[in-house]
Amino acid sequence: MLIFILYTLIFWFAGNCILRIFHFAIQPEQALDMIFGWQRMLNNLYESNNKALNLLGKALGDCQMCMSFWFMILWYWAYFFTIRSLGLWPFDGILTNIIWYIAFHSIGTVAGLFILGIKLKKKRK
User: Fold this and answer.
1) Is-above-0.85 flag for pTM?
2) b/e code 53-76 from CB counts within 10 Å (16+ = b)
3) Do 111 and 12 meet the contact criterion of CB atoms below 8 Å apart?
4) Three-state SS for 30?
5) C-alpha to C-alpha distances, 19 to 26, 77, 90, nearest whole angstrom
6) 95-124 tens-digit pLDDT
């Protein structure tokens, strides 16, 4: 169980470091923005009348809370399959798995907000 907790802490830390690096890389004049035109894409999604595209834009970096929330869902599955493949997954029942998912996702999302600097709103031009 100690190894499982250690891996969990490492995954929380690594996931939020990846989130921070990605968030930095999509900022204006940074790597992903220069290569893929990330900020232009976010502006197009933000200005769209389609609500689904607005939500996609928020998840891809327009809103730090949304970005942290959706990233942690994906990161949980990477964590789950890695721990499971190592044979370290300690939970059997559906209820305990759901409770652990909620705990992992909640703690990871809040930690991601702290790492991103807790700015919940981003002003557009």
Assistant:
1) no
2) ebebbbbbbbbbbbbbbbbbeebb
3) yes
4) coil
5) 11, 15, 27
6) 989 999 999 999 998 888 887 775 545 555
* Rounded Cα distance, 66 and 33, in Å: 19
pLDDT digits (tens, 9 = 90+) for 34-57: 999 999 999 999 888 898 998 899
Write the burial class of residue 102 (CB in 10 Å: 0-12 exposed, 13-18 middle, 19+ buried): exposed
CA 26 from centre of chain: 14
Amino acid making up residue 125: K
**Residue 85 carries which side chain, given as an amino acid letter?**
S
Contact in structure between 113 and 17 (CB atoms under 8 Å): no
- CA dist 65 and 114 (Å) reads 10
Q: Say how far apart CA 19 and CA 120 lie, in whole Å.
A: 15
Domain boundaries, the chain: 2-116
What residues contact 71, with CB distance under 8 A and at least 6 apart? 15, 19, 22, 112
> What's the confidence (pLDDT) of residue 121?
53
